[in-house]
Structure formats: C-alpha cells, structure tokens
Design a protein that fits this description.
six-stranded mixed beta sheet; alpha+beta; single chain; 5 helices; Nucleoside Triphosphate Pyrophosphohydrolase
C-alpha cells in the first residue's frame, strides 16, 4: 500500500511570528481555502483558493502553510451564519468522503487538514477548565484562556482499523455496521481506549465485534479522518479460527468471509455487497489484500 507523505509545507516556523495572520491577509500573494459546513470548494479537480479580500471578515483565520510552489495559504473557517453551500448550486463543495479520486495528493492533504482544523477552531472557543472565551495563538494552531492560562491544542483521537484474513490468506472477513443496514461491508474499527496500546485495541475490537481471535497483527498505514478528529491506523491481521466469526448483534449486524473474486466483483460495483468509498483507508486495506494474489 502506498502511503502519501505531506505534500504541502505546514510552515510551523511562521506560526509564532507576531501578526502573521494580518500580514498574510494583506498580502497580494496569499491565497485562502474556505471551509463551510465541513466542505471546501472544488473546481476542475482542484481546491479553489481565493484572495483574502474575497472572504467574509467573520471567518476564523488560520495559517495553513505554503503550497509546494511557495504560495502562502490561509484557512478561513466560516460559521453557521455564513451563506449555505446549497445557495450556490453552480459551485461544487466537497468533504473528505466525497473527494476520493477527485483531488491530487496535495489537494487531499490540504482538504483533510483544513476540514479538521476548521472543526476544532469552531468547537474550542471556550476554555474546558473554566468556561472563559479563548484567544487564538500560534497562527491559529492553539487557543489560550487568559483567565486561567490554560492552553488548548487541536486534538486527534486514534482509532485502529483492521483487515482480517483467514489463515490460508484466501478469504477476508468484513462486517456490516448497523448504521449501514446491511448495504455495505467494511473492515472492523474502533477507538483506542485509555491505557491501551494499538495492538491491544486491535485484538479487543475484533473479539468484541466479530468474535475472532488473532494470531498475527501488523501495521500497514494511517489516514487522518476528520470526523471530527480521528487518525485511522490501519492493520492487517490473521484469524486463528475463522469458524468463530459472529457479529456482536449491536454495532455489527453481520460478518462474512469473502473470496478475492467476490471482493473484485464488489469493487466493480457488481455485488454481492457494497464496499467503502475510494477516499477511505478501509477501501485501501481491502484493495491491498485483494491485489496480493491474481
């Protein structure tokens, strides 16, 4: 599986420069990615970057970094008072789930970062310790409570996601989440609990959701997933006894072992089930397994 590295410079060294946001908002060279309702505008397969003058002053501003060509980039996180994306039907606004195969690596990296940061900027306005309103710092990458001097930073919640194969490597175990009503099957996933290692989470989640014990667990890759602030950490694992597989009946309503032919058919959209979309690490894990053998 190919793991994409960051394609744009986050320019962390600029975040502590006094007045950096105001300076870039006044710059003729700077461009702005606007996030509204968890989406950013896309045109001709690329994120639309506007000038600072094109953005409403009520937005919350942050330094995103620099494009690969050196262009300074700001994020403008618009609130619920902004014009709805539905009011501009001629424009295309995409979230992370919708962007698979549409944007290049740099655009995808920018979109994920912008959506995650915009959500945090709007949700962390008040101090968790005393309730006072916070002020932005570090170019928008931190908030500080001036009453109790509490510093707040964007939070990332780690979650393990696992593709489980049979001992002979010929079948892949997938589950149907109750929220999907049996229309789609995917890898098993769950958040890391307090005090857990990633490996412990993998074993616990698979046993809880599918009743399966694992002999081997290995890391594959990771993906930022801003719903609202997750880091999906992908693994492959081998089941010790595939006959033990059963759904928990609450979160997972069905589990099935699939052959490569069945997976290939589902990837083409021909059934027997639906699979996750191309933007997700779940699909990458499934595809990676499927393509290992002809």
């Amino acid at each position: 599986m190919t793991v994409q590295s960051a394609q744009f410079d986050r320019a962390g060294h600029l975040r502590d420069e006094p007045g950096i946001i105001d300076a870039l908002r006044s710059s003729a060279d700077a461009r702005v990615i606007v996030v509204r309702d968890g989406r950013a505008r896309v045109e001709d397969g690329a994120l639309v970057a506007v000038t600072p003058a094109d953005v409403d002053d009520d937005a919350v501003w942050t330094l995103l970094g620099r494009r690969s060509d050196g262009t300074p980039l700001l994020l403008a996180a618009e609130g619920p008072e902004a014009e709805s994306i539905d009011s501009a039907p001629a424009e295309t606004w995409l979230g992370v789930r919708d962007s698979g195969g549409v944007l290049d690596a740099e655009g995808t990296d920018l979109l994920v970062t912008a959506v995650a940061l915009a959500s945090w900027l709007r949700e962390a306005r008040f101090c968790q310790a005393c309730g006072a309103e916070t002020v932005l710092g570090q170019g928008g990458w931190s908030r500080r409570c001036e009453r109790c001097e509490h510093d707040i930073f964007p939070r990332t919640d780690p979650a393990a996601i696992v593709a489980v194969e049979s001992a002979d490597g010929e079948r892949l175990l997938l589950g149907a989440n109750a929220n999907w009503r049996g229309r789609m099957y995917s890898c098993f996933a769950g958040f890391v609990e307090a005090g857990e290692s990633l490996e412990t989470t993998v074993h616990r989640e698979i046993q809880e959701e599918a009743g399966v014990l694992l002999d081997e667990v290995r890391y594959i890759s990771s993906q930022a997933w801003p719903y609202p602030r997750s880091l999906m950490i992908g693994f492959r694992a081998t089941a010790s006894d595939q006959r033990r597989a059963r759904p928990d009946g609450e979160e997972i309503i069905d589990v099935r072992w699939f052959t490569r032919d069945e997976i290939r058919s589902a990837l083409r959209g021909d059934g027997p089930v639906g699979l996750p979309g191309p933007a997700s690490i779940a699909r990458s894990l499934i595809l990676d397994w499927c393509e290992e053998r002809a």
